[in-house]
């Protein structure tokens, strides 16, 4: 995607808009940064090889334009001291990041994107709205608690019967949004840690699907017999994304659960853990199907796989990095 000069330019302005929104000192400047981010992402969605990209870009533009109008209305209302303006502003930011129950546009847009565009939508596009949401946390405390519980349940239950990989990953992203919002309730530093690890784990999964050109569950099953090492890497990456110990994705969830327990948010931890267990169910369904539905006559080819590509090796190292964290923790103490 970034080999095209125009795409590199739009990606640069997208990053600049995100930085502008996060570092702004007024809501109007933050709105300008979000609009620059929006207008830079729409050309990246458009693709001549994907017939659904135009529909996805239109859905994304209409949803984000509605949220931007709500931000302007809320910002002007805050200057005049109107009640519930913080709730309106928080709702607009929650719409922009695709948190439940304002999530309906997220799976529909994700279904029309390529995997590289999906990486941006599920990672970078959540950063600026979530940082801006931290400024209104105190006024909208109960709203955030409700959104955390709703996002955890929707992200878990919504992906159970999905056969399209992009929809499944979009519901997984909604579930991780609940974790990030709960981390943001504790501290911004904890949110940064969780967001960074989530970006790494989700990018490894999306790049694997992009490499395999897999968009449906059957694509993984039909190509599973080609390389058993790739199926193993996918298995490890999905377990890391689901937060199963001792993989890398477990570390920020471990820290978040501890901080929630210390801060008397045990009821939030209960919903988050239950949602994660359901997420692991459909992650395991992906990997077990790819392992167990291999043609027996082709299994002799698995012994011939002696080397892994550099991409697969990098994915494996990133996801088993969590094995070292508890060891280093105990060595420091």
**Rg, please?**
20 Å
- Would you list the SSEs in sequence order as H and E? HHHHHHHHHHHHHHHH
How many angstroms separate the termini?
45 Å
Please tell me the total number of domains: 1
**Helical residue percent?**
over 70%
Mean pLDDT level = 83
* Assembly state of the chains shown: single chain
Percent of residues in beta strands? under 5%
Shape: globular
Give the total of beta strands. Answer: 0
In this structure, how is the largest beta sheet organized?
none
Secondary-structure-derived class: mainly alpha
Alpha plus pi helix count: 16
Low-confidence stretches: 295-308, 327-333
Topology overview:
Blueprint: H1 5-22, H2 27-45, H3 53-79, H4 85-97, H5 105-111, H6 115-122, H7 124-133, H8 141-157, H9 165-186, H10 188-212, H11 217-222, H12 228-242, H13 250-262, H14 266-292, H15 310-319, H16 324-332
Helix pairs in contact: 1-2, 1-7, 2-3, 3-4, 3-5, 4-7, 5-9, 6-10, 8-9, 8-14, 9-10, 9-13, 9-14, 10-12, 10-13, 10-15, 12-14, 12-15
GO molecular function: NADH dehydrogenase (ubiquinone) activity
Protein name: NADH-ubiquinone oxidoreductase chain 2
EC number: 7.1.1.2
Structure notes:
By secondary structure, this protein is mostly helical. It has one domain (5-332). It contains 16 helices and no strands. It has helices spanning 5-22, 27-45, 53-79, 85-97, 105-111, 115-122, 124-133, 141-157, 165-186, 188-212, 217-222, 228-242, 250-262, 266-292, 310-319, 324-332. Helix 12 (228-242) runs antiparallel to helix 14. The longest helix has 27 residues, at 53-79. The chain is globular, with a radius of gyration of 20 Å. It starts with a helix and ends with a helix. Mean pLDDT is 83; it is low at 295-308 and 327-333.
């Amino acid at each position: 995607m970034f080999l095209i000069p125009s795409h590199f330019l739009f990606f640069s302005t997208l990053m600049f808009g995100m930085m502008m929104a996060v570092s702004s000192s007024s809501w109007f400047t933050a709105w300008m940064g979000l609009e620059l981010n929006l207008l830079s992402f729409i050309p990246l969605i458009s693709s001549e090889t994907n017939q659904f990209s135009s529909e996805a870009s239109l859905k994304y533009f209409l949803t984000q334009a509605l949220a931007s109008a709500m931000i302007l209305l809320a910002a002007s209302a805050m200057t005049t001291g109107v009640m519930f303006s913080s709730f309106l502003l928080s709702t607009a930011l929650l719409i922009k990041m695709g948190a439940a129950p304002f999530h309906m546009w997220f799976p529909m847009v994700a279904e029309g994107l390529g995997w590289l565009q999906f990486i941006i939508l599920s990672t970078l596009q959540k950063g600026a709205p979530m940082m801006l949401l931290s400024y209104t946390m105190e006024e909208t405390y109960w709203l955030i608690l409700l959104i955390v519980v709703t996002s955890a349940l929707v992200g878990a239950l919504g992906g159970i019967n999905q056969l399209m990989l992009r929809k499944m990953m979009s519901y997984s992203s909604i579930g991780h949004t609940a974790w990030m919002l709960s981390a943001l309730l504790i501290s911004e530093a904890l949110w940064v840690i969780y967001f960074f690890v989530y970006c790494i784990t989700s990018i490894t999964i999306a790049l694997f699907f992009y490499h395999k050109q897999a968009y449906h569950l059957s694509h993984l099953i039909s190509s599973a017999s080609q390389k058993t090492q790739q199926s193993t890497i996918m298995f490890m990456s999905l377990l890391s994304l689901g937060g199963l110990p001792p993989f890398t994705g477990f570390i920020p969830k471990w820290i978040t659960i501890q901080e929630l327990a210390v801060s008397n948010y045990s009821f939030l931890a209960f919903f988050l853990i239950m949602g994660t267990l359901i997420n692991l169910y459909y992650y395991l369904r992906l990997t077990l199907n790819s392992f167990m539905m291999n043609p027996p006559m082709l299994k002799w080819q698995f012994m011939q796989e002696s080397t892994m590509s550099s991409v697969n090796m990098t994915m494996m190292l990133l996801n088993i990095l969590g094995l070292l964290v508890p060891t280093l923790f105990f060595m420091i103490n």
